[in-house]
Amino acid sequence: MSILRKLFFVDLLKGLSLTLKYNVSKSITIRYPDEEKWVPYQRFRGLHTLNRDAQGRELCVACELCAKICPTQCITVIPMEDDTGMGIADRVAKVYEINLVRCMFCGFCEDACPTTAIRMGREYELACFSLDCAVAAKEKLLAPKEIPVEFEGGYVVKAKFERSKEGIRVRPDLTRKKRWW
Amino acid sequence: MDINTLIEVALIIVKVVVVTMILFGLPIPLTWIERKVAGHIQLRLGPYRVGPHGILQPIADTIKLMFKEDIIPDKADKWLFKISPILAMVPAFAVYATIPFGDKITIPVINKEVTLYIADMNVGILYVLAVAGISVYGIILGGWASNSRYAVMGGIRSAAQMISYEIALSFACIGVVMVANSLSLVDIVNAQKGLNWNVIYQPLGFIIFFIAGLAEINRIPFDLPEDEGTLAAGYHVEYSAMRFSFFMLTEYVAMVTISVLSVILFFGGWNAPPFIPDILPPILWFVGKVALFIYLFMWVRFTFPRYRFDQLMAIGWKILLPLSLLNILVTGLFLI
């Protein structure tokens, strides 16, 4: 048998048929950033978000549990009294900063949070040219996110690469999605 | 000298210029196709950025190669170093003096019959094998003149490989010559009218020809003269810019040559199979078959790993050479 296999190049032909199959199959390359972009799953642990409730009040009560549980101690919370109703309680965060250089995206903060105020988001393009952006302040964390929470992730979507004075960004077009591979 | 002779001479010059231009231009799309095939076999996309689907990538590469510094090593044999890319390139092109791309066609307006080959030598196949063999001098001398250990190793390997496989290659051709009763490539193609393709009568000969051809043109799995794993880049390790691209040009032209020879010797040249209606011109059949072979070479390249040098020698001397002799013997017995 083995001499016949050698005589008719069985193993070589098997290899050739495999590569031919790959040659006509779809490529797994994601054409990031100027044509496509990967939208992660909902469970993804990217840049943190601070959330609001349905009335638009901040959910964070500045209990500092996230700052205490943080293994890298990258969260700074300074509370203040507030009765204008910007938060759900009388106590809101005066300063809420996450040092993204130190953060290791373990997600303990969202586990610790009693009001589900802090959540790990789906933004992962965190590179920048100066250290200013390394500290995410409260306004940045509270800002509405590009990808809505309801959007089911795990897709490659069409994207546009935009270059402006503020920097570069990849804007996804969530309506044109496809399963990746 | 009368006017008819002048027209004939002018026609030959035009044919030579056209063939040379095509051969110079051919590696440009071929590099792109090769990289695309490589990419898709490895589930990548290949070149994608320059032009739609990276189609202008080879142009960008050519421009880059032209404007790069031409480095000549200090201790190199300067004259040999400069001349050896040309020495490798010229024979690769000279082969096409006798290769037929089709039979006679008639140019419609001036109503003149033109043959689609530069010369129909009565020793065509012999000329092709001999001239293609000279090409290895460029590689050996280039490796020697570089004054680099990697390069000289590549040159030596190339010499040993060429000698071993040239014999099997020539013997595989002899079977075809015996069937066609002629050394002329035009006659060999004409003897394969209909479906009398030599691959049916000479399957063993074709396999030997194909494997030896792979070794002749230094392609994976036999690309030991430029083995990246052990010799960096082999014989052209010290070459840069245009001189390097001459070597690459030689390699691509050699690949086209072996594809063309396979088609002419074993797959009926420009003859269409008889059961397919006669709508395509013969030259398209020829180009199509050659394109299939070129794809086959690329496909093989990105499928198989490289052989070790002792394995290469063993395949050449212990398997291919006896088999090719056997092929001649069996062909002779059938013809008697």
Could you tell me the number of beta strands of chain B? 2
The residue-averaged pLDDT of chain B reads: 85
Largest sheet of chain B: 2 strands, antiparallel
How much is the radius of gyration of chain B in Å?
21 Å
Cα distance, first to last residue of chain A?
38 Å
Bin the strand percentage of chain A. 25-35%
The top-level CATH class of the largest domain in chain A is Alpha Beta
Q: Please give the CATH architecture of the largest domain in chain A.
A: 2-Layer Sandwich
The oligomerization state is heterodimer
Uncertain segments of chain B: none
- Please tell me what the overall shape of chain B is: globular
**Fraction of helical residues of chain B:** 55-70%
**Total DSSP helices of chain B:** 13
SSE order of chain B, one letter for each helix or strand: HHHHEEHHHHHHHHH
How large is the share of residues in beta strands of chain B?
under 5%
**Uncertain regions of chain A: pLDDT < 50 for 5+ in a row?**
none
Number of domains of chain A: 2
Count every helix of chain A, treating DSSP H or I runs of 4 or more residues as helices: 5
Task: Determine the mean pLDDT of chain A.
Answer: 86
- Backbone structural class of chain B: mainly alpha
